[in-house]
């Protein structure tokens, strides 16, 4: 999953980006509202973490302009615990809120929930074709046997399972799983898919020639 972090306080932005990467997210960061809006419009993010108090454009302005063109889930960070702010945010199309200072584990939980909900998935555990995937523990089992995947393999599988029944193009996988700082080789996704198949069975991920990959339901 790829997230955009729009936060102007450099220390908080750095530590959040690091924590998110440790959780397996691809992360792009913007330090001002106008840059954040531009990135949000030009990339396919799975979620956006948006601070309210920002230079150039504030979080409300970013959200308002973004909502004219995109429905990407947005988690707002506000410094003020004011009802007025929350109402304004919900009216402007924010999907969730967090009041600063916040607990990192709460931010991560809300982010997971936002991404799940936007894919039409209610629970943190998913099951398909004997595969069980726990998005909280980032663990996987098939036929009752736990299988160890690398962080990359897990991310690819999670994305495919979250979008099960759909054909996911290789381009979409790159867009959603790697950020600007990743040095990607064109065949990398295929290498990971090959490895996932070796660990979990070749029948789980179907290749649709010329279109992409699919976990069929
Ligand atoms: Ca700020």
Describe this structure in words.
This protein has helices at 10-22, 33-42, 59-67, 83-92, 104-118, 151-162, 170-177, 188-200, and strands spanning 2-6, 26-30, 47-51, 74-78, 96-99, 125-128, 131-134, 139-142, 145-147, 206-208, 212-214. The protein is of the alpha/beta class and 217 residues long. The strands form 3 sheets. Strands 2-1-3-4-5 form a 5-stranded parallel beta sheet, sandwiched between helices. A 4-stranded antiparallel beta sheet has the order 6-7-8-9, covered by helices on one side. It has a two-stranded antiparallel sheet with strand order 10-11. A hairpin with a 4-residue loop joins strand 7 and strand 8 (139-142). Helix 2 packs parallel to helix 3 and helix 6 (151-162) crosses helix 8. It is elongated. The chain starts with a strand and ends with a strand. The structure holds calcium ion.
